[in-house]
Structure formats: C-alpha cells, structure tokens
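User: Is it possible to get a 3D structure for a protein together with its bound compound? The compound here is adenosine-5'-triphosphate. I've pasted both below.
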Amino acid sequence: MTFSALGLADELVRAVTELGYTEPTPIQAQAIPAILAGDDIMAGAQTGTGKTAGFTLPILQLLSANPITVKRGEKAPIRALVLTPTRELAAQVEESVRDYGKYTEHKSHCIFGGVSINPQIKALKGRVDILVATPGRLLDHAQQGTVDLSTIEILVLDEADRMLDMGFIHDIKKVLALLPKKRQNLLFSATYSDEIKQLADTLLNQPVLIEVARRNATVEAITQKVVLVDREKKRQLLAHLIKQNNWFQVLVFTRTKHGANRLAEQLSKEEIPALAIHGNKSQSARTRALSEFKSGTLQVLVATDIAARGIDIEELPHVINFELPMVAEDYVHRIGRTGRAGAEGEAVSLVCIDEMRLLSDIEKLTKRSLTREIVPGFEPDPNAKAEPIEQGRRGRQQQGQGRGQGRGEQQARSGGGGRGQRGGQPRRDRAEASADGETAVVGEEGQQPRRPRQPRAEGQPRGEGRSNGQPRQNRGAKTGDGQPRQARGEDGQARAPRGEGRGDGQPRQPRAEGQARGDGQPRAPRGEGQARGDGQARQGRNGGQGGQGGQGRAQGQGAANGQPRQGRGGQGAGTGQPRSNGGARSGGNGNGNSSAAPKVDASLREAIRRGDAQPLSNENTPVSTWFDQPRRTHGRHR
Ligand SMILES: Nc1ncnc2c1ncn2[C@@H]1O[C@H](COP(=O)(O)OP(=O)(O)OP(=O)(O)O)[C@@H](O)[C@H]1O
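Assistant: Yes, that's possible. Here is the predicted structure of the complex:
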C-alpha cells in the first residue's frame, strides 16, 4: 500500500516521502479513504502510530479538491478546525500540518493561551485555511469577534476522549455552537472509554468506526515494568536508576505540579539536570523546557499529565511513572511518549503500597499484567501501610466523572459536576480562560482553591456531560466508593534550578533545533527479523541484534458502540502478535539471534497494511512492524 494508492495528491505524497514515510500506517490506510469519502469518523489507534497524518493528509486533500473562490478584498474563510487539549500538542499538530502541506497552497495557524493574543488576532485577519487551537483561547477569540468559525467544513478533535471528557465538554459545546451544523467531524485518540464513545456518538453523523488495535492497548515495543518501592524512597531510587543506567533522556511523570517542581529540584541537586513542565509554568518556561528536552540538551523532564497526550519526542527512550496516574487511560498516553513510530522504548513505574489499586486498574484496562521488580537496596517494607494518595486535579476530577474503575478507599467522588464545575457553576470563567484556559483542565492540580467535594451516594447520577450525551447504551458509570478529600493548595511557579553537566559524566552533544538525532541521516532500515533490541541501556540505539519478529495477526474490530455504520475499506486493521524479542531489550542481553524470532508472514502483513486482516483478541501489537522502513525525522521541535 502506498500513499498514492490511497488517493492522495502528488504534492502530499511528495511531502510525506520527503519525511521518510514510505507507506501508510494502518490507521492512515483506513482513515484517509474514509475521510476523503466525506465520512465522519471515530478513530482509535495506539500511541505514536501516525494519527496526525491520518487526519491532516485527507483534510489537505479535501480542501485542495474543493477550492473556494474569494472575492477581492474579502477574507478567505477558515475551513478546518483542529482542537487539541494542550498548547504543546496544538503547536506540534500545526507544525505537522505545515510539513504535510508544504507543497500545497494552504495556510495554517495555531492559537493557544498563555501567550499574547495580539499576534494571533493579526494572523487571523489573514488567510487561514486550517486552524489548530486549544478551546479556551479559541473561545476568547470568538468572544472578541476575532475568529469566525461559521465556515468550518471539517472539525477534528485530537485526543478526542480528553476533549470530550468533563473538563472540556463545556468549552467544546460552546465551540460546537459556533460551527455550521453541516460539517465533517473527525475524532482521533489512542484511548476511549465507553462513556466517551457514547458521548461522541451524539456529535458524529453515522460515523465510521476505525480501531486498529484493541481499545486502550499499549504499544508492544514498549517494555513495561513496575518497580516496587516505598513511597519515601522513590526519589532516591529514581536518581539511582538514572545514574546507574546512564539514562540520558528521561520523561518522568508525577501526579501534581507541586510534586513535579519538587522532584525536578531534587534531581538537579543530585546533578541530574531536570526541569518541570506543568500548567502553572509560564508558557515560555513550558516551551523552553520541552524544546530543550526534545533537542536532547536536557536530561530529565518532570511533567504532569500535561505532557502525556500527543507529544512526539523522537525516539524518547525512557518514560518513568514516578507516581501512577489516577486514571488508567493516562497511563497508556504517558508511556506512549516512548515506543513511537516503530522505535522501542522503556516504561518503568515506581509503585508504592498506596498505588496497588491504581496498578490493578491499569492492568485491567490494558489487559496486560506488568512485571514487578525490586531493586536491591530499595526493597519495600513488608509492613508498610497504605496511605491516601495526594492527587492532582485530574485525579479529583475523574472521580467526579466516575469514569474511573471504582478505585477505592482513598478517593472521593464529587457531586455530579465532576471537574467541569465548582459549586454547580461552570468551572471556568472567561478571565480564567484568558489566562490559561486549556491548562486549567489538563491533568493539573488546583489552579483555583477548591472546596472539598461532597461524597455522592452510590448510584446517584453524575449530571452534566454524560446526561447530554444521551447514550444509546446505558452502561452506567462506574464509581469509586471513597471518602471526600480536602482540596489541596496551590503550588508555586518556581523553576527548578538546573544542574551543570549531565550527571553521568558523559556529556551528550546538544542537537540544534530541527536537527536530526545522530548523524542527521534517515534512520537505517531495519530488515525483517533484524535487531531492534540493543541490550544496552539505550545508549546506542543502533547496537545489538536481537530478534525482531512478531507474527502478523489479525484484527478488524467492529467496535460497535452506538450503531455505527460499518466502515468502508474494512473496519479494523492489521496488527500483529506480540513480538518475540529474542531477549533483545529489557534484560540487556540481546543476543542477535534473529532466527529465533518468528517472522512476520509477508502476505498477512500485506493484508494488515491493506486493513483487511481479521480481529485481534487481547494481544498487544508490534507497531514496530509498521515502521520498518527508513524514515526521516521532521519538525522543528525535534
Ligand atoms: N507513515 C508513516 N511512516 C513513518 N513514520 C510516520 C508515519 N506516519 C507518522 N509517522 C511518524 O510517527 C510519529 C508519531 O506520529 P503521531 O504523532 O501522529 O502519532 P499519534 O498516533 O498521533 O500519537 P499519540 O496517540 O501519542 O498522539 C511521528 O514522528 C510521525 O512523524
């Protein structure tokens, strides 16, 4: 399957070819024809599998195929709108739009909060065909009359489940009210809960459902493990692991902004250069931290879930869950920052006794049991007692929504409003929105002091958000049964001091912005069965010869929720069986015996790429097999 065979125009094929994409990924192979046919779609595919191109390429093509004439002196209409939950993702998506649309005439622009609105107003006065935005700032523009959304032909909700959850639903509804009724709607995400699917159903018109892997599946190329440790020893253990293994690019997730600040400071004191990124940081600090991390000049980025969605860091080797997320879906997104585009990655979760319930939620969601390890010198106390978990905003909000999995004793439930509301009022007023609209709702702990939540009686409806969805299938929300917690105070904006040097005595050459990793050449093609494992602690990505194989296996999910129309071009897609890695990675002993690894059957693989393979059961997918062609990096953020 080629991009041309999908019906894409030469200028688009040329752009992706220059980026090193030789063939579409399964999500692209299925989504592109459906979008070109004008269908609404709801698409789910694992993290890092190219969903952005899956919607951007056909949008560019549709706009080119249906040009509009604008009279002299009139402003060209905005024709497509992409909404994302975070500013960083908005910037990244818009950059992709520019990259993919390089040889087209279309103009794109990105608007988000935390930066001056004036340059955005100026840009919006000019030609913008595709607008990428976060909802808060978009609504500010709408209110000021500086954006006209009445001409939108195509709407995309990227990270759709997050966009439709309680924190965003109010803003999304307001945006929807500004759009023409007749439009094409595209929803993309790596995770979907049943509730979100039902809600989405009200937004979509006879959607084609496309799921290229079991829902909420993690990527098989990510080695996942859990290290059991006492709560108080997590920080020392993290520093130990980083130093011991010479990890040089580590994304660490904490639950709270305060925790992220504290951890970044502590690591820096231990000569491990670290910065924190979260919603209380200024936009310039956020941008700087992410850009230094992406370019490889910053060793550790400590983040809240603000960085969990969509952010594409080329070949990021390590994701650490310093604390498990309160919402299991967030785990899938967090670890999905590694193992992207066929690369391998490692995700390590430091888990203490308080988090065992969260761990089992994650294992249930991902249908995968995680290997538990203990690091000598950091053995957990067998007599330790669980304590209530300090939560970020998202955790508290999710309890309000009841989307969680009935998580237990330490957790509160709010009365109906979930995170979108305080005391029955919409969560965000315009002033707050202007300041930091989207970040106030993205995986962050309190930006405003909150009242303690009232416990909700079991079975009591949760109100807003789900009620408007009029789900066809009434599955009922799952609930926790915990006690209410006191709202926590705010944390400051302190920037973590940065240590000098890299801590491991092995300075890494900073990459210039936009420069490709390593030698600037496209990554070498990996042959069938050839090694991806390196056996080393990710120092040399090209080393080792572990077996990579993995047998293609079927997939093709009907994935029905609310009576979707069967998709043309085959529902569901190819995927494969877990790769047998020949001991290549985690144990550090890749032996290079590729013959030991099962090979992907060529015809099945072709079927997978065509998107007409059969359904996969519960296995994870060797996404790596979709990307085994050379590809060039792209994007200024790299
Ligand atoms: N057909 C392709 N061939 C090779 N690489 C690709 C292809 N399509 C996309 N990529 C690359 O794969 C990486 C991941 O793509 P993208 O960010 O769109 O993933 P995603 O599915 O949206 O991930 P997430 O769920 O985390 O948002 C990017 O670096 C992109 O350049």
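The chain has 17 helices and 18 strands. The first helix runs from residue 10 to 18.
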